[in-house]
Design brief:
Helices cover 27% and strands 29% of the residues. By secondary structure, it is α/β, with parallel strands linked by helices. The protein has one domain (3-167): 3-Layer(aba) Sandwich (Rossmann fold), CATH 3.40.50.150.
Length: 171
Amino acid sequence: MSIEKWNQRYLAGEQVFRTPTPLVTRYVADLAPGAALDLACGPGRNALYLAERGWRVTAVDGSAAAIEMLRASNSKIEARVADLERGEFQIPPDSYDLICCCYYLQRDLFPQIKSGVSSGGMAIVIVHLADPGELRDYFTDWTVLHYYEGQPGEACHRRPVAELVAVKAPG
């Protein structure tokens, strides 16, 4: 879907969720706050949750409408408009204790996500299922805490998903 169509959907109130993704709340609840990156954040439900818990959050989405909504909700979040498919945002290596990428599949981002997570940090990724096992295969060299393929745990999503929570080895 084009960024303009996403802008229209967000402005119409579609796909504007207030509660964070359950997988994020489940795995972040006991983590000490640090630096977090929320990729394809939309209006920022996960970014807002993280910021409320003391995380220093950078949130990125191609939709200017979504980023404006996020900025209006919390001006302390570093919210950026960037088209990820065009490479308008590069993830600096070893920069984040947590990177979330929920309900967005861009395969060429996985190497950047893996590089961008600092030693001992975590990645939380949810994608609409493409090829079985594919998401897990990108993280074979990480400690996988959770992997699931099947129906989503949120009523707002209807297509099957792959979920992954993984930790980058220390050192």
